[in-house]
Amino acid sequence: MLFRSNLYGFRDALLSFIDGHMTALYEARERRADGAEIVTRNTLTVPVDFCHDWSRVLDSVEDITDRRRAQEALRVSEARYREIFDESPVGIWEEDWSDTKRMLDDLVAGGVMELRQYFHDNPDRLREFYDIAPVVDISRATCELYGATNKQRLIDRMRAGTVSDEELDGFLECMIAFRDGQTAIEYESLEYRLDGTPIITTNRLVMPPQHRHDWSRVIFAIEDITERILAEEALRAKSSEIELLRMIAVASHQAATVEDALQIVVDMVCDFIGWPVGHAYLTADDGSGEQLPTNVWRMVEPDRFENLRAVTMATSFAPGVGLPGRVFASGKPAWIKDVTVDPNFPRRAMAEELGIVAAFGFPMMIGAETIGVLEFFAAKAIEPDAALLELMAHIGSQLGRVIERKRAEMALRG
């Protein structure tokens, strides 16, 4: 059977002879006597003595079927790899670390054994090592992850002078791990998209077996886990809040007196938020709404905040005056970022001496009635936290119910 492609090959050989060439090559599809199709490599040669009339042409035929099948299999495999590489939802990044390995080997051969300490003392050398590894390829997903319109923009951006210290530290740990014989590494890193947006990524590095002798191929799989991390943190925070409410409910219900219940809550809130000072006020019984200081305090450093205690114990607050007064008047939590500049903070004049800056308070409620205020102080300015204030409002309502019950029990004991 004569395949059309064979005619094209013969034609090309003929044209080659016409052009003065005495040797021509072409491939052909043919069938063996048993019907099997094969691919042959045909070498046509006109001997020197027959160049004038081409009356003798030698045809050398080689069966290259297996070679072509192997080449086609390789082509299909590479196409499949390229498709996986480009279409993978996870970013893929390839680098050649052979120069990195040579430089690292030279460093060790020169007597440097404590690599972490060396690069800590010589940060410019770490940046040099980071930049020496050329990028082989970057997948489409990687460009999208970092917000790059093309590969070159991303490559230009990923230089030691522009990446975070955390990313450089991760690179150092990978170098050391590879030198110690590890071939697969995973770490999380704070990075930045090209528009400056911070992201948290998980980076998995793999060194294929055939490249472990010279580190000539290192493959990164990069995934943006920012949303997952934020969701996990939010879940942990919510779980902590629920546990705080549970612990306060249990402990305050077991308290023998109102003062004991207040002390439990003040202590637990200070521990939860990490603020050094907490204090409780109770509303005067005369209907004036005046906030009276109590002996319920939590001070992490009593000596440091003794002046605050002394001034506070000598001061009561009318509705709307100071932090306790404004909380009473509104029936809602309040936050002061910096008491030293707040016009409605009577203790402001002594704030620096008192060692306080940020403050917040929340009411203890029985229905719509504010029966007291808890206030807390920090030694630095802190931005308002709406979620925390919402949690404190729940605690204030919870504590109000406990106090209502305690007072009822005391009345019964009469």
Task: Provide an overview of this structure.
With 414 residues, this protein is an alpha+beta fold. Helix content is 46%, strand content 23%. The chain has a 5-stranded antiparallel sheet with strand order 5-4-8-7-6, sandwiched between helices. A 5-stranded antiparallel sheet has the order 10-9-13-12-11. A hairpin with a 7-residue loop joins strand 9 (277-283) and strand 10 (291-299). Helix 9 packs parallel to helix 14 (386-413).
Topology diagram in text:
Layout: H1 4-18, E1 23-31, E2 37-45, E3 58-63, H2 65-87, E4 91-95, H3 98-109, H4 115-121, H5 123-132, E5 135-138, H6 140-146, H7 151-157, H8 165-179, E6 184-192, E7 198-206, E8 218-224, H9 226-254, H10 258-273, E9 277-283, E10 291-299, H11 306-313, H12 322-330, E11 334-336, H13 351-354, E12 358-366, E13 369-378, H14 386-413
Antiparallel strand pairs: 1-2, 2-3, 4-5, 4-8, 6-7, 7-8, 9-10, 9-13, 11-12, 12-13
In short, what is this structure?
This protein has helices at 4-18, 65-87, 98-109, 115-121, 123-132, 140-146, 151-157, 165-179, 226-254, 258-273, 306-313, 322-330, 351-354, 386-413, and strands at 23-31, 37-45, 58-63, 91-95, 135-138, 184-192, 198-206, 218-224, 277-283, 291-299, 334-336, 358-366, 369-378.
